[in-house]
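2024-03-11 09:14:02 DEBUG pipeline.ingest accepted 1 chain
2024-03-11 09:14:02 DEBUG pipeline.ingest length=65
2024-03-11 09:14:03 DEBUG pipeline.predict start
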Amino acid sequence: MQLLEPVIALLQALPGQDRQALAELINQFAHQETGPERQLTAWETPETLGLANDHCLPIGRPSST
């Protein structure tokens, strides 16, 4: 996590619309990923990077149920 802290800080400085667009782009790639572990990691990336909030939730994330 220490490695990601500077990246997270930079991303937090982006306008909300840009953060949402980046999260949506990451989710598009997650949707295309065929490896289950890689797909899960990709789905978690926006949240890990602090991009997910009330206005920017993962789109199309597989249900855990």
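2024-03-11 09:14:41 DEBUG pipeline.report DSSP finds three helices and no strands in the chain.
2024-03-11 09:14:41 DEBUG pipeline.predict end
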